[in-house]
Specification:
The complex is a heterodimer of chains A (114) and B (117).
Chain A: E1 2-5, E2 10-14, E3 19-21, E4 24-27, E5 31-38, E6 44-50, E7 56-58, E8 64-68, E9 73-78, E10 87-95, E11 102-104, E12 108-113
Parallel strand pairs in A: 2-12
Antiparallel strand pairs in A: 1-4, 3-9, 5-6, 5-10, 7-8, 8-9, 10-11, 10-12
Chain B: E1 5-7, E2 10-13, E3 19-24, E4 31-37, E5 44-50, E6 53-57, E7 65-68, E8 75-79, E9 88-95, E10 107-108, E11 112-116
Parallel strand pairs in B: 2-11
Antiparallel strand pairs in B: 1-3, 3-8, 4-5, 4-9, 5-6, 7-8, 9-10, 9-11
Classes of the chains: A mainly beta (114), B mainly beta (117).
Chain lengths: 114, 117
């Protein structure tokens, strides 16, 4: 069984300030890790993912996340947020060996304040 | 590649009625998934198809729920005798077959929001 914990349900941050959204996971097997973003009334969009290789992964819009196996974390960071980053962010894990059930966290709402 | 599409986008129904949702995956994807998302929660897995075979069903999928993918392309999710607790966003996702690039990434549709009155 696997689980994902996103401790922060809401994170308010001023525009152009840095932000970190925390994600911790639990699994008895190796996993792949994902961050998805959901804008209001829309489906989920893949933001970035870690499958293997470099533990630091980046998205095209300036977000990055680092896989830390010892701390079982995959925190999402951005050095300077924009108003358009206001959305809900979901961390997710996938069992790398079995079938394709993805387990999601409960989400973190990022509110960028002008 | 037009992405995953879902219809309808919104459905309002009265308790006790049956509803059916449709999902069209990305054309070359052989794997298809249904999730349910309630307010304030992350998506929860409901069921998974590989081609036309339904390989896994969650305990969340009660006997009032049935999903099909008859020709291995589009899928339908039917809820019979809807209850107010069924109100949620129903999300569909698809992914490529093993061996293909991005095989481990699921691509989501916009969802169908169900409101049961």
């Amino acid at each position: 069984a696997q689980s994902v914990t996103q401790l922060d349900s809401q994170v308010p941050v001023f525009e152009e300030a840095p932000v970190e959204l925390r994600c911790n996971y639990s699994s008895s097997v190796s996993v792949y890790l994902f961050w998805y973003v959901q804008y209001p009334n829309q489906g989920l969009q893949l933001l970035l993912k870690y499958l293997s290789g470099s533990t630091l992964v980046e998205s095209i819009n300036g977000f990055e996340a680092e896989f830390n196996k010892s701390q079982t974390s995959f925190h999402l960071r951005k050095p300077s947020v924009h108003i358009s980053d206001t959305a809900e962010y979901f961390c997710a894990v996938l069992n790398s060996g079995g079938y394709q059930k993805v387990t999601f966290g409960t989400g973190t709402k990022l509110q960028v304040i002008p | 590649d037009t992405g995953v599409s879902q219809n309808p986008r919104h459905k309002i129904t009265k308790r006790g009625q049956n509803v059916t949702f449709r999902c069209d995956p990305i054309s070359e994807h052989n794997r298809l998934y249904w999730y349910r998302q309630t307010l304030g929660q992350g998506p929860e897995f409901l069921t998974y198809f590989q081609n036309e075979a339904q390989l896994e069903k969650s305990r969340l999928l009660s006997d009032r729920f049935s999903a099909e993918r008859p020709k291995g392309s589009f899928s339908t999710l039917e809820i019979q005798r809807t209850e107010q607790g069924d109100s949620a966003m129903y999300l569909c996702a698809s992914s490529p077959r093993r061996g293909q690039k991005t095989t481990d990434t699921q691509y989501f549709g916009p969802g169908t929001r169900l409101t049961v009155l």
